[in-house]
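Intended use. Records like the one below are meant for learning the mapping from a protein sequence to its folded structure. Do not use them to infer anything beyond what is encoded.
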Amino acid sequence: MLVKADVQGVVAALADPGTPVTGLALSSRYLNGQRFRDELAPLIASASALESVDFSGQQLGPAGAEALAQCIRANPRLHSFNLTHNDIGTAGVTALAASIAASHADKDVVLDLSFNTLGTEGFQGLTIALPFCVELYLGSTDMRAADVAQLSFSRCEALTVLDLNSNNFGAAGAVVLQRELTSLGRIRKLNLGHCDFPGGVMAGLVAALNAQEQPPLDALTLDWNDIGDEGAQALGVLFETHPPTRVSLKGCGITDVGVVAMISKLQMGAVEGLAQLNLEDNVLSDVGLTVLTETIAASPSLDMVSVSDTEAISDAALDRLEAALALSARDRRAVACALLAHVRGACPRNMTEILADALQPSHDSVHDASDSPSEDGDRASFVDRVLETFGPATLDAVLTCGGDTCCSRQQLALAAVRGSAVARDLLSPPTLKAMARASFRRRIGPRTLILEPRLTEMDALPESGCLHDFVLYGLHFARDASQPAEV
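Structure written out for the chain above:
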């Protein structure tokens, strides 16, 4: 049972033998060390079910931290400690670390000491507790490069979360840290925001993360480090090999050039995994947003992109970005697969299945029979969604690469000429001709594509339009071939 109350409520809960308190959080502030030692410490030491305590902002000071250290020795079940904003100092952190090391050989310790100035001797004292920590938060602890070296995170084999944000240990600390990261085989979340990193150190950090024999990070935060385009380009290597699920690069001085370099591999559809990307407070324009929008087409997993609304970014560019994010994952998988095939010059084996899934009517909601879209209508809708969101060049790639292994290309062609007025105007003649040739190769015959009522009215077609060329191309095949041609 988690109890969140003021001091009186916490005391009452701990004193009640019928209340098995497993978690404790003070809702009031400024308990101070003496009051904690006198009123709460004896109860915490004897609370046999208690596992976690949240004393953030209580100003416990060294005396309160030392009293809590005694509680840890008396009650080894305790293993999660939130002690942010408590001014525990060197003496307090040294006492806590010694008790954790003495009592928690078989426990997974969660330790949050953020916003406490620990000092060089305090970091030295903390080292004996690190092998027992699975989550360690040391943000805003005035950590220097020498302290990073002293902590020796390489001994933290069990560590899954490391938060060092707002410590200005700069490039020297980053160089030390990159040596340590190769040993953190279980790290899942890494926060290095506001650590005064320049772009030049990012290549080394990326190399250290890539050297780990583990799945990609769940979260990587580098906010407010002036890594610029150089750092963004280095991150592109990480995105290609081990893309984290969530990446935050807020206020990193990245321009459109850096965005292009960072996500070029994602744009080719080469990798999946990145789900959230925060680029707020960077120096972006419509150019960068266009690249991001195109990247979303090739990255089905990317479902959240955050950018700042500045004068350099138009409403239209923001609208296109939102539309791309709103496009369904199955549509984006189809686009990604086609774009990758376009880049590599060959269709992957699963192209048929992916496109077939995108072309099927959606079953996300229940419709009446009268409201259910036909297959052709749903294909036309897919064509329109891809075209309106990503433009004719992307749709050309989808259609051109989409169907040498089955009739998917013909199905898309039918959708384009039957149900999508925009597609009829914008698709390129080579693409339409390629679709016509594919229809004959697959022995579908000319009537499927050209003998539709609306298409036989040649006078209604603009003589110079793509659709006009498409129909004439089909008629040419129909007149010259007594049987479907092999192309």
